[in-house]
Write a structure and sequence with these properties.
Shape: elongated
Strand content: 15-25%
Largest sheet: 7 strands, antiparallel
Number of strands: 15
Strand order of the largest sheet: 1-3-4-7-8-2-9
Distance between the termini: 58 Å
Radius of gyration: 28 Å
Length: 346
């Protein structure tokens, strides 16, 4: 995910006001900020470093924000007006950010990444007292000076910055992916308002992490059921899905293929509460592989049974709820040996 080459073509700055302050509207630039070669190289390096150190992959979450559509149109038009598009992005951020967010600068830049046109959207919050006045040109247009840019952009005086990068190589009518970094949030997290509400995106999680959440969430739901036969059948189905050669998983498909109709809605609801996407996900069992080798059955009376998953499917182990109460677990196999195990505490 590291960025090899990164070149700025033009930059536009807009002042974002704090809600509840003297001004509740963004102060918009009407032309790009000119950059000397020295300033351009400095800004390129700081943006590139921020993305390479902390960026996470993101993808569009349809219907949440108009920002992805603005970015799509901009990257698909060779003659796109960055001033107009950046003003729309600034108005959206002004309307989106919460009242507790500090005022700052929205930086929108046309860049080229590894030979492809791209756009950078960054928010920089600065220390109070640092010069933050826009200027008006002889033609009556608002912009910001280069010195102002150097005072604010990723210097030691900057409190936080959020940077998003979207390249034409990853953005089209059917695909929308990018990179987002947030140095304010802990670890590699990203502020929800910036990622979701403003950019209209969600994190692209590693397949092995989502697969683990699917497996563990499904197991918790299965063990919440009271019917022992259902528990057994559903666990066998889950293990079968995880051990199969399929390269994808889907909550809806699993429910449709393996669960009784009366259980499907409850399963979907549980998986949503476990933060498992209902959409199809890529499967990778790297983090759960060890858990797929054996089935562990624990009883209230402290009886423990370990068995290969196939034993539940081929009838060597059967589990029934008895009408008079309790659960009957039968093991049909050849007796091999019996031995003591575990530490004794008198």
């Amino acid at each position: 995910m590291a960025i090899a080459s990164f070149e700025i073509k033009q930059v536009i700055l807009h002042q974002i006001s704090q809600k509840g302050g003297e001004s509740t509207e963004a102060i918009l630039s009407h032309r790009p900020t000119p950059l000397s070669e020295r300033d351009k190289l400095y800004v390129e390096r700081r943006m590139k470093d921020a993305l390479n150190r902390r960026a996470r992959l993101v993808e569009e979450e349809a219907g949440v924000s108009e920002v992805p559509e603005i970015i799509r149109k901009h990257l698909s038009d060779q003659h796109a007006d960055l001033v107009k598009q950046s003003q729309a992005l600034a108005r959206k951020l002004q309307a989106t950010q919460p009242a507790i967010s500090s005022p700052g600068i929205l930086i929108v830049a046309d860049v080229e990444v590894s030979g492809c046109p791209a756009i950078v959207i960054a928010k920089v919050e600065h220390e109070e007292g640092i010069r933050a006045q826009e200027i008006t040109t002889d033609q009556g247009q608002t912009t910001f000076t280069v010195e102002f840019l150097r005072d604010l952009l990723f210097t030691s005086a900057s409190k936080v910055y959020k940077v998003a990068l979207f390249s034409s190589a990853d953005v089209n009518d059917t695909n929308f992916r990018g990179m987002v970094a947030d140095s304010q949030a802990a670890g590699s997290e990203i502020a929800r308002y910036f990622l979701n509400t403003y950019l209209g995106c969600r994190l692209v999680e590693r397949p092995e992490v989502v697969t683990q959440r699917f497996y563990e969430g499904a197991q918790r739901w299965i063990n919440s059921l009271k019917d022992s036969e259902k528990k057994t059948a559903y666990l066998v189905a889950l293990l079968s899905e995880m051990r199969s050669n399929k390269t994808t998983l889907s909550v809806d498909s699993f429910a449709q293929d393996h669960l009784l109709v009366e259980d499907r809605d409850a399963f979907r609801s549980q998986m949503q509460s476990e933060s498992v996407p209902l959409r199809q996900i890529d499967k990778s069992i790297d983090l759960v592989r060890a858990n797929l080798r054996k089935v562990r059955i624990d009883t209230k009376g402290d009886v423990l049974i370990m068995a290969p998953p196939d034993a539940l499917d081929d009838g060597r182990i059967t589990i029934y709820d008895r009408p008079e109460g309790g659960t009957e677990i039968r093991v049909l196999d050849e007796f091999k040996k019996i031995s003591g195990s575990g530490k004794y505490s008198p």
